[in-house]
Hints:
- The structure is a single chain.
- This protein is of the alpha+beta class.
- The protein has a domain at 19-104 and 117-135: Translation Initiation Factor IF3 (2-Layer Sandwich), CATH 3.30.110.
- The chain has two helices and nine strands.
- The protein has helices at 3-16, 65-81; strands at 20-25, 39-41, 49-57, 86-94, 99-105, 109-110, 113-114, 118-124, 127-135.
- The longest helix has 17 residues, at 65-81.
- The radius of gyration is 23 Å and the shape is elongated.
- The N and C termini lie far apart (54 Å).
Amino acid sequence: xxxxxxxxxxxxxxxxxxxxxxxxxxxxxxxxxxxxxxxxxxxxxxxxxxxxxxxxxxxxxxxxxxxxxxxxxxxxxxxxxxxxxxxxxxxxxxxxxxxxxxxxxxxxxxxxxxxxxxxxxxxxxxxxxxxxxxxxxxxxxxxxxxxxxxxxxxxx
Length: 156
């Protein structure tokens, strides 16, 4: 491996290491559930049991929808590990600051020849989200009420 590929690999691994989840337990965990069964709520349904406060971060990227989806997926996966069948989404957003990734090319002089250099900064960001992992007993009401059916797609 060349030094350049080793450095590039180290940079990618360090950026990916920034992603993750954390939790603060509010009550006892339940047996784990399938993450596909975890629902997203806008408010706590009556009778729901709050299990944990969750925080999640995406890997560093360019502020894409994929990063937002990754944060929600991490919240749902962590909730499922704790036996929660729902997550009350508090919010998802950018990290508020930019994480610069720099690329530079240097130069020098040798034998009377002078070289130049170029530096490029690529602005990146990390998405973060927060939610409350909840267990919603069977028959509990969704406080946002019934959802109207989606309208059909426009025809052309």
